[in-house]
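does this look right to u?? glutamine version
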Amino acid sequence: MAETLDSILAESRDRLRAAGIESAALDARHLISGLLGLSLAVLMVRGGEPISATNAQRIRAAVARRAAREPVYRILGEREFFGLRLKLSKETLEPRPDTETLVDCLIPHVRRVVARKGSCRIIDLGTGTGAICLALLDAVLEARGLGTDISEDALATALENAQRNGLAERFEALRSNWFEAVEGRFDVIVSNPPYIRSKVLEELEPEVRLHDPAAALDGGDDGLDAYRAIALHADRHLETDGVIGLEIGFDQKQAVTALFEAQGFRLRGSAKDLGGNDRVLVFKRDVE
Ligand code: GLN
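got this back:
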């Protein structure tokens, strides 16, 4: 009997379920829709249509990778973040929906700066795919961004993502270890740095442990190394009324706040992620 979308979908789901993947049905749908370039809705209504042997083979190969715990979007090579389609590569963290919270928190600040000055300069430290910076540039036309990363592979990926999303004219990439190679001041400093304690890295689920780059996760012994490096030099690179927006680990609000307070900043806002954990902190200079 000829294979149909429905039959390969059911086969894929069963194979992922047998491999112990909890989100088997959803993952099968996402993989097939991504590989065939069909929306999830189209996949549903066209379920009875036959599929070619080549496509069936591509799907089976992808399902085998997922069964071995590679994340869906690593297999597809790209994922959506804040409405942008972003390419992933070996040395970039896969952008998480929780990180969209950070973008949400910063858009009003970027708009305020633009209203006051006509433009806004953003720096995204450890930009990876460029996700945070590109989402802000996409949301606010007058903003310009600099993405830094220690990885050349990440910088190339961020530049490609800027190009793909029509943001290349307003985005630059710089190889830098946090602020080391950075010059000048910015209206918004943003970062989702590595914040996992080295010791607990090996406890992470295989999708993260084996497929996200360790350099994007490992925050050192107490998980705070990157925040320390950023806090130490932030004053030199922040405009007078600038803001610093950071993603943090669920239990780091107090510790990160203390680090920035020690350098003359004050917590101006915070937000929780989709799971209700503290995830975003926003600092300003402690002036008044
Ligand atoms: N949110 C990621 C995770 O839970 C960690 C990202 C980071 O260290 N910045 O795996």
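The pocket of glutamine is lined by residues 93, 96, 192-196, 208, 217 (CB under 6 Å). idk if thats expected tbh
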